[in-house]
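A favour, since you know our structure tokens better than I do. Would you make up a two-line entry for one protein for me to read? Write everything out right here, beneath this request.
=====
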Amino acid sequence: MIKSSFKMRLLSLWLLMGVAAMTAEPVAVPSLREGDIVFTGSELGQGSAIMAATGSVFTHCGVVFLHEGKPMVIEAVHPVRVTGLREFIGGAKPPALSVKRLKQPPDAAKAAKAREWAAAQIGLPYDIRFQWGDDQLYCSELVWKIFARAGVELCKPRTVREYRLDHPKVRALIIERFGGMQNLAMEEKVVAPSDLAASPLLEDVPLGAIDR
């Protein structure tokens, strides 16, 4: 776990920044804004199963914020952490790379609440079972909940049964992590990266604007 002192330093950084996260004001650099969501896709690890279950190329996502003028990304991996934009994107390229931005950002006070909550999640373990709780988080759940703290519901959570569970790659992952289909909570709330990417509240950010 990341020490609480680091969490407090990051929290202070977010709260004292001159640019309000997820607000309409652009950041100092002409690339990304705080609150932008970066989506990537990869078949590595659980990626191929996520692609099969959702029918989308997107398998991961995170939220941008600035540190000393440089874009960073808060993401839920092992554990929830802050990552440089270059590292986060890796070798991802369109169509498995996309950046989206709120069309109507929340006010600064609501954005500050979201920043505070997000910073407090750093160090939490990754939720390999994709369950809707706050003690462990998966990537799209983290993003959804950050925006929810700002009063923005990016999309309606779906249920487990709504995804393609009969695909061989999906079934293999279910057996590995749950022991079998019979152990799945079919009504569990879930949000996938693709669900967030399809939100009508978001608009595309030109990829040429990304300064890695």
Confidence is low (pLDDT under 50) at residues 11-30. Residues 40 and 60 are 5 Å apart (CA to CA). The radius of gyration is 17 Å. Residues 4-16 form the longest helix (13 residues).
